[in-house]
Amino acid sequence: LSLCVCVFVLLLFAACCLRNVCCVLFYSASRAMSVVSLMAGGQDRTTFVGVVVPEEIKVLGKRLSKLDAGLAGQVTKALISLCLEEFGGEAGAATATVSSVQAAHPELSVQAVTDLYAGVRGLLRAAFRQPVGFCKKDVFAEDLSSGLGIPQPLVAAFTKAVFAKGRHASIRERAGELDVRLPKLDQFKWRVDVAISTSSLKRALKPSVLMQMTLSDGRVHTFEVPSDQFHALRYNVAYVLKEMEELEQKTALQ
67 pLDDT exceeds 70? Predict the structure, then answer.
């Protein structure tokens, strides 16, 4: 029984990481299986936004294509700076708002500026969600122009914003500070109790596992697991780990 409890403890720690691992695998699978038809050297590949281009990014390309090149450049740079300040990837407090951008360019309607802001923000969010080094600069630029309809003169502004040195790290650090997370497992204690007798049986000798978990937020949970439920939990955790190993061997995830 002690050996089984030790195995259970190891599996329990693995199960604590299971949700995050499954999220990563699901993300990788969706990236690998999503296809956006972009002819790049005769090969189909996927843009960094995934298989479904968000509507606001589609509208962004259309809006920018209809604007004068000079005006489109000024508005795009202002909105990029606004989004970077909002994401925490640029030092200093936000010095601009969507309203101030619209006031600086009265020839644009409020709806036009709002659409442009939503598109720029969505595009930058999709770019910064990529792991560092996942997308190369030249591939990113081609995705913008060929796949998302961003005018070529504006591609450099987006590329500079995304691939600036240290930009990913600062934004991820800021996101980590604001991220809502479940508490982590700080401490785990257990012991095996054996019921020698009960009110109905003089000789029971029924084992059970008493567990105590201390979470990172200070909460303590104590519970008892009968031997049959312990074995069921041990089997289910082992089964999930086996499924994860088989999923990692899929060609789409390699």
Answer: yes
